[in-house]
Description:
- The protein is α/β, with parallel strands linked by helices.
- It has a single domain (about 10-475), classed as Alpha-Beta Barrel (TIM Barrel), CATH 3.20.20.80.
- It contains 15 helices and 16 strands.
- It has helices at about 1-10, 65-80, 95-105, 130, 135-145, 170-190, 205-215, 245-255, 280, 285-290, 320-330, 335-340, 345, 375-380, 460-480; strands at about 25, 30-35, 40, 40-45, 85, 110-115, 155-160, 195-200, 230-235, 260-265, 290-295, 310, 315-320, 405, 410, 435.
- The longest helix has 20 residues, at about 460-480.
Amino acid sequence: MVQFKTALAASALLASTALAVTPVVNDGLDFVNAISGARFQMIGVAYQPGGAAGFNPGSGIDPLSDAEVCLRDAILMQRAGINTVRIYNLDPALDHTQCMSIFNAAGIYLVLDVNSPLPNESINRAAPWTSYNADYMRRVFQIIEAFKNFNNTLGFFSANEVINEESDPSVPRYIRAVTRDIKDYIAAHSSRHIPVGYSAADVRPLLVDTFNYLSCNLANSTNSGMDFFGLNSYSWCGDASFEEAGYNILLEDLSNTSIPIFFSEYGCNQVQPRTFTEVGSIYSAPMTNIFSGGLVYEYSEEPNNYGLVTINGDNSIELKQDYLNLVDQYGRIDLAALTAANSTATQREPPACAASMIRSNLTNSFDVPARLPEVQDMINNGVNGTYPTGFAQVTNTNEIATVTNPDGSTLQGLELRVLAGDQSNLPGENTSGTTGTAGPGTSPSPTSSGSSSTGTNAASSSKVNTGAVVLAALTLGFWAQL
Ligand SMILES: *[C@@H]1O[C@H](CO)[C@@H](O)[C@H](O)[C@H]1NC(C)=O
Ligand SMILES: *[C@@H]1O[C@H](CO)[C@@H](O)[C@H](O)[C@H]1NC(C)=O
Ligand SMILES: *[C@@H]1O[C@H](CO)[C@@H](O)[C@H](O)[C@H]1NC(C)=O
Ligand SMILES: *[C@@H]1O[C@H](CO)[C@@H](O)[C@H](O)[C@H]1NC(C)=O
Ligand SMILES: *[C@@H]1O[C@H](CO)[C@@H](O)[C@H](O)[C@H]1NC(C)=O
Ligand SMILES: *[C@@H]1O[C@H](CO)[C@@H](O)[C@H](O)[C@H]1NC(C)=O
Ligand SMILES: *[C@@H]1O[C@H](CO)[C@@H](O)[C@H](O)[C@H]1NC(C)=O
Ligand SMILES: *[C@@H]1O[C@H](CO)[C@@H](O)[C@H](O)[C@H]1NC(C)=O
């Protein structure tokens, strides 16, 4: 901790103004840069240091509240080539300005879940009508308020994995209702449209129907349709192939899409260390005809063993072999092909919703629940709270944590490269840091595989959180001097 603070003081005030990344919008089945029209594909990672159990509102900490932690991690994401980060659990009462500014400076977008695991903060899959209420929607709108003024907010997930074999048949209607309310709130209170979509569990018997239901155009409720569709899929394990992973089936099933689709989580960990050979498939044709990239689950090592890096209690970082393997795979992506916009793809329009689209027992109704009067009032008048108005200067760009390779060698010269306006991050560019002594890591340390993608326990997160609280105190003191 003391070392951390000293390094911070020494590298402070290498100030530079962060220019914004350009907003990304959905256009047909592509995401595109709102200004240049270039196609945008997600080269991303899920980010929840401390795991799902690390979210503790009232603690003053969430994954975007601590500037030192964000700087430490944004540097390692930037050098890897990441351009998008997904975050699950956020507290709208906290100020995320510094972290959003750091990610923006690094050329990294964020796709954010509006929900949390706490009561009244997500749709209840057993009884959704009990969860569609004013308290829940106020929280959701507060998240919109907390992030709408940052151009690197790429999108919001209105719901995550609510539909499965156990979900009530009315769940899809409520997902559309919440999506409608979010889109209407954004239309009333944001200076730009921010895409809103769903993140689906890979329940293959329900997948196509879920996709069709949520993406079709409902004439009497057009805003309840998704702007994009995320799929959490762990079907490519080890050195699998396009066919073994069932990517060919996914392409067939989703071939008619008129909205962007991406892997909102991927990265099976049954074979360790992970080699990420699916990257070559995800970022080339035919996958790129339909998919807009994906997000690797996940940045930090948690009890379920999906990490790219291990965060130690003293805030130092050990890169896992997985991180090096992912960087290696990213380095082989044909970047020019990724950004080529395609007018056939952008001209697609959603088909009209029809009962014939639904072949399973997913649901039998397109009757989207009526909006509650209290929710209409919030859409008309906004929600209470104090929210950021835009980016701040990024004043500190040097890595302040010790970062080691799997072989124990330390990385030197790590820094945040502040990108010029309208640039987003890409693999192979802005790769700071060189290895001090030994060569690249060669000693992978296999660990056992986990079973749940987001399930974690609090055992190892308490350590991280303690560190983060102390860091937050330092941060407050530091920023107050500026
Ligand atoms: C956000 O993007 C829009 C469109 O490119 C631009 O006009 C605006 O200045 C940007 N905002 C910031 C804070 O950079
Ligand atoms: C959830 O919200 C409802 C309605 O706003 C409220 O009556 C209920 O007490 C809340 N439940 C919890 C657990 O906070
Ligand atoms: C719907 O079908 C799935 C199998 O596809 C089954 O597991 C589930 O129990 C069924 N749900 C209802 C409510 O009947
Ligand atoms: C895609 O659309 C075509 C033309 O409407 C239709 O024949 C085909 O069945 C659709 N495919 C899927 C997987 O829905
Ligand atoms: C354009 O996109 C469509 C739909 O994804 C795809 O079928 C087609 O091959 C693409 N064309 C080119 C030239 O990439
Ligand atoms: C909207 O259209 C759907 C499908 O046609 C229908 O089931 C539903 O009752 C309509 N809702 C309203 C409020 O009219
Ligand atoms: C916003 O209003 C709600 C309901 O009136 C209240 O429970 C909540 O504490 C308020 N939040 C803030 C941040 O003022
Ligand atoms: C980041 O990489 C791009 C492309 O190589 C380069 O043009 C830009 O100058 C780099 N930015 C910094 C701050 O090094």
